Amino acid sequence: MEDTLQTLDDLISQFLSLDRPLWSSSDDADAFLEAVDELTSTIHGLENTSEDHVLLESFDLLLESCSMRLKDEFQRLIATSGLDDNYRDHNIKKSQDEDDSHTFVAPPIRDFDIIVDALPEGVATQANRIARRMIAAGFGDICAETYASARRNFIDESIARLGVHAHMAERFKSTSWEELETQIMRWIPAIRVVFHILIPSERHLCNCIFDGFTSYSDLAFATACMPFLQLLSFANFIAAAGQNPESLFRIVDMYDALTDILTVVDEAFHHEITALRECLGLSIKGIFVALEKLIRRDSSESLPADGGVHPITRYVMNYLMAACASRHTLEEAMQSEFGCTEQCLINPDRPTSSLAVRFAWIVDVLIENLESKSRIYGHVPLGCVFLINNGIYITKKVNGCELKVLLGEDWTRVISLKVHQWVSEYRRATWGRAIMILERDIMSGSSSSIVVEKLNHFHNFVKAICQVQSRWVLVEKQQAMDLSTMVEDLVIPVYRGAIGMLKATEAVGASYVRPEDVKFQIQQLFKAMAKF
């Protein structure tokens, strides 16, 4: 055994002393691997038959020296995958990031059904020959770590070529939301390429190099892919940073991207992707809570002087319309919350999907806020016009998009009834008072002077109404026409009755405004309010 050790040591030392790569010569590589195989076989035989620990230790030291040289050769082979200028495509453009002035960004990838051959032909086979020897020598962990280390530059550069960075969360933690949106729009296509192409390619390469050694293949793969996990952490950062309503749409985009990835994700990353989706889903739920709080906090006393649509109404309804385009994603993200009805009471007369309940609740909060604002006017008719305008705006928005499907006919009917209620309050507060002037203290047999006085009072009142309310607005032309007809039907019959009483007194020379002229006044008022 001592002679064998000396013979192997002399043979192997010739290779270890070479200052050039052994794999630059296939003959040297084959001879060295043959010597390593003989050394390993000898050690295994000694372990079973010899108790000479000193001799065994000498063999082990020689094997360790061989493994370290194999490690260097292995790393050199794997590192041949680095992308240099010889591989650059003329379509690849330079990144504009100041910190990566030498990184070139690849054009968008549309075909995901590809595997990248990261190593030149035959290199993976040679690397596998080395890996098998290192694992047999007990250096499998070192081999896996060496693989990951050798692949790091390639993986980092691959990420950079997608226009993103593994440490995006740290780099942009103090950035404005506008800049974060730009980074999100880079991150989404990048993460798709990573999980559709780069990670499957890396898994394929690991399986080739560590063929027959699944545990070491998994270790090498997981360690090499750490930069991809760091890239994923950007989604966690955004989920925490995006707590204002405006962040919803980009977070939904990220959620959709992760959903797409789940169908192809390597098992090693499935837990991380699932957890990230849940994190983004919680963020989506939190955004709608933030929207509700935003509506409740909007106690501004700055109201439209003409009773028009309030900015908060436009904002909320346009927001919900835009969100409705992602209703299926939002429904999925919110589903886990609803079982819990403390925050959003589910009305059995409404669609009971979690998203429908949330949207309906938000609009209910908005209407409650608008009703509170209407009282700030201190003038009931103007407050009613304000509510009518906002209510009609809400119903038009709902009926004009998928919100109608989401919220359902019953909910729309409830809002329409509210608008009808506000119309009735306006009619009573304004024109009810007008006809009371004519009806109060006028009865059959009243003197002409009393009737004339009431008519004059009525005309002055109507004139004042027209002067004030012509400065108000009705945002819906049809609503203005309907209101005009309703007021005419309420006022004109009573006015005709008063004129009839005046005629019955047989007052000589008594003059009065014709009912047609009063009707014209009413029509002109509502035309002025509708701006047509």
Describe what this molecule looks like in 3D.
The chain has 532 residues and is mainly α. It has a domain at 298-340 and 349-523: Exocyst complex component Exo70 (Monooxygenase, Up-down Bundle), CATH 1.20.1280. The protein has helices at residues 2-16, 26-49, 53-78, 123-136, 140-161, 168-171, 177-209, 214-224, 226-241, 248-262, 267-297, 311-324, 327-334, 354-374, 380-399, 403-439, 448-469, 477-504, 515-530, and strands at residues 93-94, 104-105. A two-stranded antiparallel ribbon has the order 1-2. The protein starts with a helix and ends with a helix.
For the biggest sheet, the summary is: 2 strands, antiparallel
Q: Count of DSSP E strands?
A: 2
Q: Helicity, in percent?
A: over 70%
Distance between the termini: 110 Å
CATH class of the domain at 298-340 and 349-523: Mainly Alpha
Using the 3D structure, state the CATH architecture of the domain at 298-340 and 349-523: Up-down Bundle
- How is the CATH topology of the domain at 298-340 and 349-523 named? Monooxygenase
